[in-house]
Design goal:
With 164 residues, the chain is an alpha+beta fold. It has a single domain (2-154), classed as Gcn5-related N-acetyltransferase (GNAT) (Aminopeptidase, 3-Layer(aba) Sandwich), CATH 3.40.630.30. 29% of the residues lie in helices and 31% in strands. A hairpin with a 5-residue loop joins strand 2 and strand 3. Helix 1 (2-8) packs across helix 3 (23-35).
Length: 164
């Protein structure tokens, strides 16, 4: 999973998650999702993966539990060579179905404000923008960076949402 995350982001976008975009930064980030509570409690049963022919991951959706009603998708990652096949939409839809079957009625995720392709996919799945915030990093080796993230929420009454 760490390798998929590292390969799915260019260095400028990775800094919002992994401190330097390197494999160790991604390992630390993944460890926080799996063992921490900052993005909710890791929900292994809600995660979705696609393995490639070389037994490496081509795509994955990670899922966490925010509360009794809400799941969060802290990562939707697709390897560059596997893009354009609809994997992210299929995996997110599968994660939402699994969450619905487990009794959850809401889902959230974050997407970069300029990531129009992903925003369109999430719109089609029924997610709606609920908030925008600034993500900032400070790195002594650089001048630091600022980027915007948009919070998306899948309302309980959405057309393709978590309600059956």
């Amino acid at each position: 999973m760490t390798e998929l995350l590292a390969a799915s982001y260019d260095d400028s976008r990775a800094r919002a998650f992994a401190r330097d975009g390197g494999i160790e930064g991604w390992r630390d980030y993944l460890s926080q999702i799996l063992t921490g509570i900052g993005c909710g409690t890791f929900l292994p049963a809600g995660c979705q993966i696609v393995e490639g022919p070389d037994e490496r991951l081509d795509a994955a959706v990670l899922t966490t539990r925010i509360n009794d009603d809400t799941v969060h998708l802290p990562q939707v990652a697709v390897a560059r060579h596997a893009r354009g096949q609809g994997l992210s939409a299929r995996l997110v839809a599968a994660a939402l179905n699994t969450a619905r079957d487990a009794g959850f009625s809401r889902a959230t995720l974050l997407v970069g404000e300029r990531n129009n392709r992903r925003r369109h996919v999430y719109d089609r799945l029924g997610f709606r923008e609920t908030a925008t915030f600034v993500s900032a990093t400070l790195d002594r080796a650089t001048d630091g960076s600022l980027s915007s993230r948009t919070g998306y929420c899948l309302p309980p009454a959405s057309r393709s949402g978590l309600r059956g």
